Amino acid sequence: MKVSGPHHDAAGGVHRLPVPHGVSGALLACAFDVVGPDPDAVMVEFAVDTVVCLVESDEVDRRFPTYAGWLVAAGPDRAVHSPAPDHGVVADGVAAAVAADVVVRLEAGMTVLLHCGGGYGRTGVVAVQALVALGRGFEDSLVAVRAARPACGPQSDAQDEQLRRLVGGAGGTGGTGGPGIIDGTGGTGGTGGTGGTRIHGDTAGAVL
Fold it and tell me: Distance between CA atoms of 182 and 190, rounded to whole angstroms?
């Protein structure tokens, strides 16, 4: 459901996605135009603990050049950069690892804000995986995400096919591990060094 005021309407607003009962964290979604100009202000406004950026580095540099530096300076608890191509996908292991990291944070009671360019396709791919891992059925998760943020969910055949490969037959297993450096196999490690949490794999794009 929409949780932002009219000052964010031009950028599509900020929406809360429905995590299952018993999960203490909150999952939010928005477009880059909402968070890009002043991420710290948005984090304060919506009590966000971690921003997950799914935008590729060249798009970040083109649209909000100072945001790249913010992702690094914010540190691994506050910022995750997991770039994915618009309407495209990263390696399955990378996609699964990003969602698993979100699940860990939600189960720890954190508020996580997901964004890509428009806050729909790449954001929806991560959100649906997270809801399934938290115990919702796959089709129910797709419907719930789209109901909470209209049009949010897979926006291409590649995104839809990846979701169905990863969680289409699953009822959810919950998260494991802790936030940290995530490799292309889907495993989680320790907390990253001085920059934002690093997500990397064979198609994950630039690492900040």
Answer: 9
Amino acid at 140: D
As given in the structure block, the two tokens for residue 10 are 């031009």
Side chain identity at 206, as an amino acid letter?
A
C-alpha 201/C-alpha 12 separation (Å) is: 31
Q: Comparing C-alpha atoms, which of 103, 95, 66, 110 is closest to residue 177?
A: 103
Q: Could you state, in chain order, the average pLDDT of each consecutive group of 10 residues for the chain (208 residues)? A: 96 97 97 98 98 97 97 96 96 97 98 98 98 96 97 97 89 40 34 36 29
Amino acid at site 154? P
CA-closest candidate to residue 197, choices 59, 66, 105, 62: 105
What CA–CA distance (Å, rounded) separates 89 from 160? 10
The answer to pTM > 0.90 is no
